[in-house]
Amino acid sequence: MNLKEQTLKIIEKMKQIRPFESFKDLDEMNSGMGFILIYLLDAEKEVYATEISEKMHISRARIAMLVKKLISKGLLLKEKSTSDARKELIKLSDCGQKEAKKIKAKIFDNISKVVNELGIEKVEAFIETSQQIRDVMCK
User: What's the domain count of the chain?
Assistant: First the structure.
């Protein structure tokens, strides 16, 4: 089988299994909002939006939009920085903390289920292969 045929075969298999559907529940609220909540939970302090932007490797404008949505849902709070009035710090509200803990627990449960069913060796091999695929695609 030549490279073109192999590639088409892989594309067909990927369409059949839709691998990314399996991961959509890992980020409970889609579009990175769950990541922001977990990041703030793990940070255990308020942070600047730029810090989240750098960690997620996405634009500050995108972070600002996500933060605005999370504030409107009552999950985040904003306050002016005491050191620089032009900057705003972001922190979890009480509801945001509860939601972040719930999301983190669901992620843990899902990953535990995968490890229990497939075994740590297969999961680690999958991660290693995924990293190699990412490296090839980012060249």
Answer: 1
